[in-house]
Design goal:
The longest helix is centred in the last third of the chain and has 19 residues, at 94-112. This protein is an alpha+beta fold and 122 residues long. It is built from two helices and five strands. It is 24% helix and 25% strand. It is elongated and about 80 Å long. It has a five-stranded antiparallel beta sheet, with helices on one face. The protein has helices at residues 20-29, 94-112; strands spanning 34-38, 43-52, 59-64, 71-74, 78-82. The protein has a domain at 20-89: Roll (SH3 type barrels). The termini are far apart.
Length: 122
């Protein structure tokens, strides 16, 4: 993996230490595009929005880069999933959101207190 905060750029190696199901779950939670590499060598790049490991034949669903789909791909057809798109959520933790919101409030308070209202009796 690239680092603890993002999966962007990660090309997982499915094997004894990492199952396909784990990679699919991470791809489902990922906030960017992925590339599904099939066992036949073909690839589909797009946004993975659904998966069902409990179906009679487990599958993922995704929209491709052109927005076409949904495309259904069965687990048995997947060799790996590369995290190829930009992680739109990287660095956007709740704590960072709170800091930005507080900074905006502080700036708003500063503007209101900067003499924008006329003095009394003027």
């Amino acid at each position: 993996m690239t680092d603890a905060t993002t999966l962007e750029g990660w090309t997982p190696q499915i094997g004894p230490g990492l199952s396909l199901e784990e990679v699919i779950d991470k791809a489902f939670d990922y906030r960017g595009n992925v590339t599904v590499v099939k066992t036949d060598g073909s690839e589909t790049e797009g946004y993975l929005f659904n998966r069902n490991a409990d179906a009679a034949v487990p599958f993922v669903q995704m929209f491709d880069m052109n927005g076409a789909g949904p495309h259904t791909i069965f687990y048995r057809e997947i060799r790996t999933i590369r995290f190829t798109g930009r992680d739109t959520a990287a660095g956007n933790s709740y704590a960072a959101w709170l800091r930005a919101k507080e900074a905006a409030r502080s700036a708003d308070r500063s503007e209101k207190g900067s003499g924008s209202t006329p003095p009394r009796g003027a």
